[in-house]
Amino acid sequence: MKRSITFLIPLIMALLTIAMWGLLNRPIDEPPWPSRIQGFSFAPMRAYNDPTKNNYPTIAEIDADLALLEGKAHAVRTYEVKSTLIEIPRLARAHNLNVTLGAWIGSDDKANRAELERLMTVLRAGHRNVVRVMVGNETLLRRDASAKTLMGYLDRIREVTHVPVSTAEPWHVWLKYPELANHVDFITIHLLPYWEGLPVDKAVEYALSRYNEIKTAFPDKQVIIGEVGWPSNGRSYRAAEASQANQTRFLRRFLTEAEKNGLIYYVMEAFDQPWKAQVEGAIGTYWGIYNAEREQKFTFTQPIVRIPHWQELAALSVGIGVILLLLVYRDSSTLSSSGKGFLALMTYAISTAAVWIIYDYTRQYMTPATAVVGVLLLVGGFGVIVLLVAEAHEWAEALWLRQWRRPFPRRDVQDNELPFVSVHVPAYNEPPDLLIETLDALAALDYPQFEVLVIDNNTKDPAVWEPVQAYCAQLGEKFRFFHVAPLAGFKAGALNFALRHTAPQAEVVAVIDADYIVHQRWLRDLVPAFADPEVGIVQAPQDYRDGDQNAFKAMCLSEYRGFFHIGMITRNERNAIIQHGTMTMIRRETLAAVDGWGEWCITEDAELGLRLFERGYKALYIPQTYGRGLIPDSFADFKKQRFRWAYGAVRILAHHRHEFLGLKKTQLTAGQRYHFVAGWLPWFADGFNLLFNFAALGWSVAMVMAPTTITPPYMTVALVPLVLFVFKMAKSFFLYRRRVIATLRQSIAAGLAGLALSHTISMAMFAGMWSGKLPFFRTPKLAAAPAFIRAIADAREEVIFLLAFWLAAFSVLQREDGFMLDVRVWAAVLLVQSVPYFAALLMSLISAWTRLPAGLIGTMPEMQTPEMMTSAK
Questions:
Q1: β-strand 450-457 against 479-484: which pairing, if any?
Q2: Where are its TM segments located (predicted)?
Q3: Which of 145, 456, 503, 623 has the most neighbouring CB atoms within 10 Å?
C-alpha cells in the first residue's frame, strides 16, 4: 500500500500539471484571416539592420520580403525613402503590390528637406503602383515638428504630384489639430488599442468607434487606417496584454469587421523590428505578423491556442518534475503520504514555473546583452530550483515524518559503568563572576567521575583571570586552571592545549563555553550514548538563559531556536548534525584519531564534526536543554557572531571540497553531503542575493535615466524574488508554529531577527570565498552616543541599502509609465528586497532600547525532546 501511494501521488501530480497546461491553452475559435488583406505596414529590416545607424537591408532582401507578401495583400505602406528603401516601388510592382509611399519627418529640418527631395525623385519616376503618399508618421505626436511646419511640407508635396497626399497620426491628434485636414487629400489614422490599455475583448469595438468618430468629424475626407495591430510579446499596458494569442485574436476579429465594412487599412506590421528596442523599448519589436526570421507567427485559420506547442512544454515540466522528485524521494521512507504529496506538488510546481519562465524569456529577440542576462538567469534559476527543493524537503521532513529514524536515546547507567569525562572550558577575558557561576554549576554535576579544565587563553589583565584560578583551587582537585599566554589558534588552540593536559583515564571530552550554566544531569543523561562504539559525538543544543532580559534578547532567542529545534533534528535523521562548540561531547580516542581541533578554522567545532563523519563516526543530537548561556548584548555583537558562523561555513566547504565532491575517498554518506550543502545553501543564497540587489539598483537607475528605452525586467523574472520571499516566510512561519511550538509573536520575531542578519551573512559569504583570513569586524566606538545614533551606526550598511531601495522604488514609479503593472511589480520587488535591511535597522533600534520588555515577544521555555506527532498519516 505504501509503495502504491509513493507511485500514485507523482502520477496524480503529473496529470494535474498536464491538465493545467491544457486548461491555459484551450483552443479559441476566431474568424479566419482573409485570403488577401488591404495592406501591410512595411519596413524590411532584418534582425541585424538598424536605420538609426544607416544600416539598411539589401535590394535582394527587400525583394525577398515583397515576394513573401505577394498575393497576401493588395499594398504595402512604407515610412521613408532612404538608402535602398527608395527602390521599394519598383520592386513591389514586380510582385503586384501597390505602395503607399512614406517620407520620414523628424526634428532636423535639413534632414527633412533631404527626405522630401528623395520623395519627389521617386514620384517623378512615375511608378504607377504608388497610390498614396504619406508625409510624416506621428510627427505631431512626437512633437518633432510644429503643425505649421508639417502643413508646409504637405503643401509642397501636393504641388508636385497628382497622387493623394496625407500624413499619419493617431486618431486623437487629428481632433487636436483639425486644421491639418485642410492640407491633406485624405485622413490617415492609427488605431492601436493596445496603447490605450484596452483589453483585447473590447479592442475591436473601440477601434471601430474611433474610426467612426473621425469620419463624423471630417465628413468630406476619406479616412483610411494607416496602422492597426497588436503586439505579440512584451509588457502589459494597463488591461492590454501583449501576447501572440491576443495579437491573433485582435487582428482576425478586426479584419473580419474591416472587410465587412469596406475599410482601407494597413496591418501594423509585416515583420518584427528588433532594432526598435533601443528607441521604443522592447514592445516596439513585436508588432509583426512575421518574426524577424520571416516565419509566420500564428495560424490564419485554425483555432487560437495561447502556446501552440504547449504539449511539449507540459511534457518537459513533468519530466523535470519527475527527475527532481526522484532525487527527493530517494530517502523518504519515513515521510507520511501528506509529506510525499507536498514534495510532489512543490517539485512539479517548480519545474512548471522554470519551464514557463525559460520559454517566456527565449521568445524575445536575443542581443549580446540579453544573451548574457539569459545565461546569468539560467545559472541563477538553477540555484533557485536547488534552494526551493532543499527548503521544501526540510519543510516536509519537519512536518510530516511518520516516525523518527534515530530516536533520542537516554538511559540510566550504574555509576561504575560510566566513563571518566574531562570537561573543557576555554575562556578569554571573561568576567570572573560569570566564569565562577559556570564553575559552580559544573561542581554540582550529578556524575561520579569527571574533571574540569579551565583554559584561560591570552587574557592580559591578571585581575580577570586570577580570581578564577583561585576559585578553581578552592573547588578542589577536580578543577584545574591554566592561564596560557601566548597561545595560538584561538579557541581551537585552547582546546588542543586542554586535550594535551587531559587525565589519562578520560574516555569522553565535553566542552562548554565560559558563560554556560549546565543542568546537573547533563553528563549522566548523555554520556551513556557512547555505549555505541560507533558514536563519536553526542550533542545537546545551545540554549540561553537571558531571553527574558529585554525584547531584543527575546527575539534573538526565538531566532536561535529554529536551528536547534528544526534544522538539527532533521539533520540528525541522517547522521549529519552540525557540531557546535558548546554542550558537545566527543569520544577522546576519536578526537585523537583526527588530530584534535582544527586551529586553522574559525568554526573549529563544525569542522571537527565533519572530519569525524569523514572517518565514519556517528553523532547523536539530543534536542533538550542541558545548559544555557548568554545572548549577545547588542545587534552589533549578534551580527559578529553570525558573521563568524557563516564565514566559517564557507571556509569549511572550501577546505573539504574534495571530500564533498568525492575526489577524495571518505566515508561521507550521500545524506551527509546533502545536509552539509543544503543546510548552508540559504546562506549562500543570501550572498548571491546581494549581487541581485546591486543589479536591481543599477537597473532601476537605468530605468530612471533612460525611461524610453530601459523597461522593467521581464515580469516572470521579476516575480521570482517575490515568490522566494513569500515561500521563505511561509516556511518559517509554519515550521515555527508546528515544530518549535512558538506563539505568533515569537514566530514573527524569529523571522524578523533572521531577516536582519541577511546582509551580514551575505558579506560573510563573499569574505569567505575571497579570503582565508577572517576580516576585522569593526564595532562603532559610540558608547557615549545616544541609543538611536548607536543603533544607526550598528546597522549603517543596511540603512544605506534600505534608503537606496526606497528611493529606487519611488523613482521608478515617477516614470510616465509608472501606472503599468510591470513597473509596479518591479517597485514591489525593490520594496521586498528592502525588507531585510529594514529588519536590521529595526533590530538595531530594539537592541538599543534595552528597557523594552521581553514580555512584548514572550520568552521561550527550555527545549524538550519532541515526540512524534500521532496524527501523521
A1: parallel
A2: 7-24, 310-329, 341-359, 365-390, 714-736, 748-767, 825-849
A3: 456
Cα dist. 38→164, 228, 232, 694 in Å?
A: 17, 12, 21, 50
**What's the rounded Cα separation, in Å, for the pair 829 and 721?**
7
Nearest to 109 by CA among 68, 152, 76: 152
Percent helix, strand and coil across the chain, each rounded to 5? 55, 10, 35
Whether residue 607 is found in the same domain as residue 639: no
> pLDDT by residue (tens digit) across 484-520?
988 888 899 999 999 999 999 999 999 999 999 999 9
Backbone angles phi, psi at 712, to 5 degrees: -60, 160
Q: What does 269-326 look like in DSSP terms, one character per residue?
A: -SB--GGGHHHH-GGGG---SB-TT--B-S-SSSPB-SSTTHHHHHHHHHHHHHHHHH
Distances (CA, A) of 188 to 126, 138, 227, 263: 23, 10, 9, 12
Residue 701 and residue 650 share a domain: yes
Rg of the chain taking only CA atoms, in angstroms:
36
C-alpha cell at position 139? 510627427
Cis peptide before 614 (omega within 30 of 0): no
pLDDT digits (tens, 9 = 90+) for 121-157: 999 999 999 999 999 999 999 999 999 999 999 999 9
Quickly tell me which residue has 485570403 as its cell. Answer: 35
Residue among 645, 685, 639 nearest 796 (CA): 639
The residues, ordered by sequence, that sit 6+ positions from 127 with a Cβ below 8 Å of its Cβ are 89, 90, 93, 99
Q: pLDDT band for 4, please (50, 70, 90 cuts).
A: low
* 468 and 586 housed in the same domain: yes
Specify the pTM.
0.87
Q: Which of 588, 614, 630 is the last residue of a domain?
A: 630
| Same domain, residue pair 384 and 429 | no
Tracing cell 479584419 back to the chain, one arrives at 255
* Residues 605 and 695 reside in one and the same domain: no
Cα–Cα dist 75/238, whole Å: 33
The DSSP element (H or E) to which 422 belongs, if any, is: strand 421-427
**Full residue range of the structural domain in which residue 202 is found:** 28-285
Name the nearest CA neighbour of 818 among 831, 804, 828: 828
Whether 96 and 137 share a structural domain: yes
